[in-house]
Design a protein that fits this description.
alpha/beta; four-stranded antiparallel sheet; 12 helices; 16 strands; about 40% helix
Length: about 375
């Protein structure tokens, strides 16, 4: 791990040095001191600042409540962020319910780029009533298309093992969010959920996708399935079917459509022991990345033991992930999520919340957004 971090730092330093030398190469010098001649100080590769907005780059967004007040919206705008995501209303969504939300954000300079849809447990578990739920989701997708909501995100967990998360102190008494499967792997099934095999869950997901993806495609809406996080094999006795790279690839093969895509989470990718750059390339070249979660981790044991860390601390090369996304001309939402817990947020609770132990708020979010913007601008400035 330390060697990986040292190599990353060396590569970053070399890259920064190369960029600096490339910029300086266009400057003429005079005299023994090598002073710059202002009249010849324009580089051949000069990039005009501020870097212009590009329609073929990721859209940095943050998560807010659908009923966020104007103070919260103003705080988002102060970060230089123009896009937000949130949980959607109860299904079925209607054009009126979505417009009411989206127009309120629009008046405050913010575009809703993604809503999470839920309310389909019978669909996940293959129970009576799933066809009614699916009809509500189909109607919701039609409404989303009518109002111009581009992405609808969803989960397909049988169960999520939240008991494995814990807070882990780090620099200056800030906090990481850590996960350990060992103490919680044998927790019993929940009576209201029961136990579900991978085969049954795949069958249920296939039934769902065959019903909703054609509707989403016709409506001009992309669906993004978030991977299982934590990516452990069993949670309270039930299988997890979006917990391996093989699972992710299987998902997009069920219905071949850009509307049937994933939320590419480079942190979860590394939690599984996979190479985030190669995974990004695989799904991006197939136009199956419909949303991105941008975060970093340090993995002790793939799938089962890791910590979510500050963006510059972990094993994911965040610069290369951003470079790959920009190279792919990915232009949907990019969420620098899971901010770390800082003292200011502990002293001023509220605002942008984080449900995980060791998770932060607005100041942590500010840190994440600033880092993410720097990655993006550095790459755009090198083009």
């Amino acid at each position: 791990m330390n060697n990986n971090r040292r190599n990353f730092i060396k590569k970053s330093a070399s890259l920064a040095g190369a960029a600096s030398l490339a910029g300086l190469s266009g400057f003429a010098t005079t005299g023994e001191t090598g002073s710059i001649n202002p009249s010849e100080s324009i580089s051949k590769k000069n990039i005009e600042w501020p870097v212009a907005d590009n329609p073929n780059t990721p859209r940095i967004c943050v998560g807010v409540s659908s009923n966020a007040d104007e103070k919260t919206m103003r705080r988002v705008k102060q970060l230089g962020v123009d896009y937000v995501l949130m949980g959607g209303p109860a299904i079925p969504w209607t054009e009126e319910s979505l417009r009411t939300i989206m127009d309120r954000f629009k008046k405050n300079g913010l575009t809703v780029i993604n809503m999470m849809i839920g309310g389909h447990p019978n669909t996940i578990y293959g129970r009576e009533g799933r066809d009614t739920e699916i009809k509500k989701i189909q109607d919701s997708l039609k409404a989303a298309g009518a109002v111009g909501l581009p992405v609808v995100e969803y989960n397909f967990y049988a169960d999520r093992l939240m008991e494995g998360y814990y807070e882990k102190k780090t620099r200056g008494d800030a906090s990481h969010t850590a996960f350990d499967y060992a103490p919680v792997k044998d927790l019993p099934a929940k009576p209201e959920i029961g136990k579900h095999t991978a085969e049954a869950l795949w069958s249920n997901l296939t039934y769902f996708l065959n019903a909703v993806i054609p509707v989403a495609e016709k409506a001009g809406v992309r669906m993004a399935l978030h991977p299982n996080d934590p990516p452990i094999p069993i949670s309270h006795g039930s299988a997890q079917i979006m917990a391996t790279l093989k699972d992710w690839k299987r998902l997009i093969s069920i219905v071949d459509s850009p509307s049937n895509g994933i939320t590419f989470d480079c942190g979860v990718t590394r939690e599984m022991g996979e190479n985030p750059i190669e995974v990004c390339k695989y799904f991006g070249q197939r136009d199956r990345i419909n949303h991105v979660h941008y975060r970093n981790v340090i993995v002790e044991q793939p799938y089962v033991k890791y910590a979510e860390v500050f963006l510059e601390e972990g094993q994911v090369n965040m610069f290369e992930v951003m470079k790959e996304l920009i190279g792919l001309k990915y232009n949907h939402g990019l969420y620098p999520e899971h901010p770390r817990a800082l003292d200011y947020d502990r002293e001023h609770p509220g605002g942008i919340a984080n449900m995980y132990p060791g998770g932060g708020g607005y100041t942590g979010e500010t840190y994440n957004v600033g880092f993410t913007k720097a990655m993006m601008l550095a790459i755009l400035s090198m083009k």
